[in-house]
Structure formats: C-alpha cells, structure tokens
Amino acid sequence: VPKITVVVGGSFGAGNYALCGKAYDPRFIFAWPNAQYAVMGAAQASSVIFNINKRTAEARAAASGEALDSDALDVLRKEVHEGYTRKTDIRYGAARGWVDGIIAPHETRETLITCLGLVARERPVSHFKTGVIQT
C-alpha cells in the first residue's frame, strides 16, 4: 500500500513514527505552512536542552568561583526555547529534506491526486526500512 503523509499540525516524536513519518518510508511527505516537525515539541525539548546547558554553565561558574544568578538562567532558558522553536518550523525541516514539499491547504486535494497517480506506478526495488531499526 503506498504511503503518503500530509502534516497539517504538529508532528513530534513517537506520533511522527506512528503516523508514517520519514522512518516508515512513505512515498511522499508534504506539510502545510503552519506545520511543526521535530523530535519533540519545543517546550519538552527546550527543557531537556536547558537542563544540559544549565549544568555546563554551573560547572563553568563553579570552576571560576562564581555563582549563576536567576536572571542569567532565565536568559539561557529563553534562548534555548527560541532556538528550538525556530527549528520546529516546517521550513527548517523542508530545507533539510525532511519533507518533500510545503503545500497550501487548498492545494492538498490536487497534490494528493497527483501523488496517487504517481504511486500507481511500480516502485523501484529498495530495502524495506522498519522505523528506527534501519540497516
């Protein structure tokens, strides 16, 4: 069965896999302009990344005999969150080949019709990918 994925909202983590993300080798992945695409949502990922960066900053401060103040930690938290939020933008993913194209919502039907015509052709022989267990 040919697989065609259209990301219309957020596609993160296990949900990305379950709904035929890149690891399940769909023939096409398209996304609407408002879509978000990443390993985790910005809130969860930025929290993890912040905690890692916080430990590093605390170690540097301790090595130099200084203490981190709450303002510095707030700035760090904000920078990490903004950076990760930028990376969930679908344009970031499209620029890296994570999706085949960004389509306007009103173009979805025509795009799917075209894709269904293309996937009716015989598929080139390749290795089947089983999600995260790839060889």
Please give the largest β-sheet: 3 strands, parallel
Distance linking N and C termini: 22 Å
In the predicted model, the low-confidence regions spanning at least 5 consecutive residues are none
Number of helices: 5
Number of strands: 5
Summarize model confidence as the mean pLDDT: 83
Main-sheet strand order equals: 1-3-5
What portion of the residues fall into strands of 2 or more residues? 5-15%
SSE class: mainly alpha
**H/E series:** EEHEEHHHEH
Based on CA atoms alone, the radius of gyration comes out at 20 Å
> How does the overall form come out from the CA principal axes?
elongated
The helical percent reads 40-55%
Tell me briefly what this model is.
With 135 residues, the protein is mainly alpha-helical.
Architecture overview:
The chain has helices at 13-18, 42-63, 70-88, 90-95, 108-119; strands at 4-7, 10-12, 28-31, 36-38, 101-102. Helix 2 packs antiparallel against helix 3. The chain is built from 5 helices and 5 strands. Helix content is 48%, strand content 12%. It is mainly α and 135 residues long. It has a 3-stranded parallel beta sheet with strand order 1-3-5. The longest helix is centred in the middle third of the chain and has 22 residues, at 42-63.
